[in-house]
Amino acid sequence: MADLKMTSVDKIDVAYVAHLARLFLTDEEIRTFQGQLDHVVAYVKKINELDLKNVEPTSHAVMVQNVFREDVVKPGLSVEQVMSNAPATISDQFQVPKIVE
């Protein structure tokens, strides 16, 4: 396996992270993932170069609001209707098999 050290802030060592996560990667997988991760880090560095001092922080790109309907009380099923579909009942309650041994 490759050297198990973090090399710098700009580069994340895949072999080191895999070791911490107890993942066993082949040398080919390490090379593949290292290349992919290097591309991601380079892209993040490119984004960090943008001048964002006049950009207001947002959690969404567009305004989002929840749309809820009014809470209206409606009649439910009667106990007899509910229990009519139960395979077994005891005193107007569902009877279920004991699962604790």
Unreliable runs, pLDDT <50, ≥5 residues? Answer: 1-7
CATH class identity of the domain at 1-54: Mainly Alpha
In terms of structural class, how would the helical and strand content be classed? mainly alpha
Largest sheet: 2 strands, antiparallel
Provide the gyration radius in Å: 29 Å
Alpha-carbon distance between the termini? 48 Å
| Total DSSP helices | 3
Shape: flat
List keywords for this structure.
101 residues; mainly alpha; Histone, subunit A; 3 helices; 2 strands; disordered N terminus
Care to describe what's here?
By secondary structure, the chain is mostly helical. The chain has a domain at 1-54: Histone, subunit A. 34% of the residues lie in helices and 4% in strands. It is built from three helices and two strands. The protein has helices at 14-20, 27-48, 79-83, and strands spanning 89-90, 93-94. A two-stranded antiparallel sheet has the order 1-2. The chain is flat and about 65 Å long.
Task: Map the helices and strands.
Layout: H1 14-20, H2 27-48, H3 79-83, E1 89-90, E2 93-94
Antiparallel strand pairs: 1-2
Brief summary:
With 101 residues, the protein is mostly helical. The chain has a domain at 1-54: Histone, subunit A.
